[in-house]
Amino acid sequence: MTTAPVFIHPITSCMVPHGEVARFHACVSGMPKPEISWFHNRQPVRPTKNVVFHFDEVTNTATLIIVDAFSEHAGQYTCRAANNAGEATRTSSITSWTDNIKPSFTKKLKFQSVLEGEAVELKCKLVACPPPTILWFHNNRSIPKERRRRICSDSKMHMHTTSLVIDSIKEKDSGSYKVMAINTEGSAESTASLLVSLREEQSANYLGFVKRSAKAHESIDTMAEQRKDRKIRVELSLICFFFVFVCFKQFHLSIVKLTG
């Protein structure tokens, strides 16, 4: 006997603070056992380290677990149960960050090294609620707005992205860069260094490398010649020794004949 899937209980919506665990439970019956699929805003949900699927054979309960709930996890969740007799769906929702959140960087600034005249982008991501005030500093001095140095920011719910773009970078742009995010819950900062190499220095370093390589080759060639000379001297010594030995042998034989 086959029966189409039926949800015994509706899926309960949930509200979770930042970084907490979110769970959806779907109790479903059907024969044969239904195949369970989960969708987030109509897109299939795939299991990851942060998203776990579970099915309890005893209670026929399918569970979707989100280990760390972030803003990207907010939205509608649909559970679909299907077998060869039919299918059924139920939808619920999750709202993340019911509380205000102190700024926290999810992607910090990183060290960069660039050539003079190139463009560079210093970028980081953070989470905060309410939206933070973002400040940029170069060597502990506030960076003013100008055409060559542009500060860009973008927000999506509680996720914020900020970047500093520097065109035609100069030697004076080297140093320490800091970005600070401040809201009513607190503050956070991220720091990294930027190294600007002059093209003349780059060329000088390359020429130095070439000279060192040439000198190393000369040393190797000199060593090879010295080894070759030593080998020739050894061979000549052996030839002289053999010649003397032959002459001595012949002289000895001549003495033996005369005395005999």
From TrEMBL:
SMART domains on file: IG (SM00409), IGc2 (SM00408)
Transmembrane annotation, as ranges: 236-255
Keyword Protease assigned: no
Domain Ig-like: 5-95, 103-197
Entry-linked Pfam families: I-set
InterPro entries associated with the record: Ig-like_dom, Ig-like_dom_sf, Ig-like_fold, Ig_I-set, Ig_sub, Ig_sub2
Keywords on record: Membrane, Transmembrane, Transmembrane helix
Record flagged with keyword Secreted: no
First and last residue of the signal peptide: none
Official protein name in the record: Ig-like domain-containing protein
Originating species: Seriola lalandi dorsalis
